[in-house]
Please model this.
Amino acid sequence: MTIPATDNTSETAPSKSEAGITLEILRYIPGTHSEPTFQRFEIPYVEDWSMLDALGYIKDELDSSLSYRWSCRMAVCGSCGMMFDGVPKLACETFLRDYYPRPIRVEPLENFGIERDLVIDQEPFLEKLESVKPYIIDAMANAPSGKPGAPAGHERETIQAGENRQTPKELALFDQYSMCINCLLCYSACPQFGLNPAFLGPAAISLAHRYNQDNRDQGNADRAPALNEEDGVWSCTFVGYCSEVCPKSVDPASAIQQEKVRGATDWALSWLLPKGAR
Amino acid sequence: MRWKHHEPFFWSLFGAGGVISAFCVPVMVLLTGFLLPLHLLPEAAYNYESLHALAQNLWVKGAILVIVALSLWHCAHRIFHGLHDVGVSTGPLARTLTYGLAGLSSLALLILLLTL
Model:
């Protein structure tokens, strides 16, 4: 994006004798501003400050109108994803010292609509996430004396009858995918999502895969319609940048390819099996 | 479930072609692109008669079909999705040109092998 930067350093900025660093932050309020612009902030350089600390300093000391999402400060909540010099990262685990003394360009996550400044519109993602039913479906079907689709009262009985056991090997099939924190860095990294916003995308597919791989879950068929449609797993061309930027070392690219194999098997069976058995 | 598209078919051929392209094609390129033209193999191994006799074998015919046809399907799928990546519309024309070329070439190869 080639947007001219305006110098809006506040009067309360630290004196020039201190070591400082420049942040160029994209500012935009749809409906109020005609277009996004970059605002330049000179802030003190503190070696152990994360970008989130720097943004907090700006909001507290220089410009309280700056908007951004954040919560946990420790890469757990997935709220503070944004672009630093064009790379999607979490603000809480990106540090000024890795950029100093160069100025840092801060933008909202790529490929999403802007709600205000660094806050992006998550709604389209949340709809996709919902469509893959990211929760265990019919967990007690495999439990001792369990029956698929049994009423809640029966579920309580089966819980009393015994726990739903899982071996370390069964856990290993989906463990890494359960680490996803929905930070959406992978959607910003994905060129296919950039070209086609209808693409289900890396995080939603990873979470679908996480539950499809869980031996307690009986919901593969419920998730299949969202995964198998053209904008489901098939829009992915295995660029792999999603897996590179993931702050929790989830490998969405792998999840998508595994779901493609599952989809291809379903497709082949839809031709081979008689109609009633599909 | 009912399938409204047949992308898994093309993706499966692409995947199989990818394995062939990664493991077999480099060997074929080494043999036919370097070792044969540079006369680094004994002449008896690559003269017309011995290669023709080799290609008469049903297993070898199958291997040639698999290596060449699947590589073509791999290329077709890669080009089709590559067009989308560079912003070229991927409508029925692009689909027909890419997959059609791979299909026709595979068919031509099959006929050639059967009539060899």
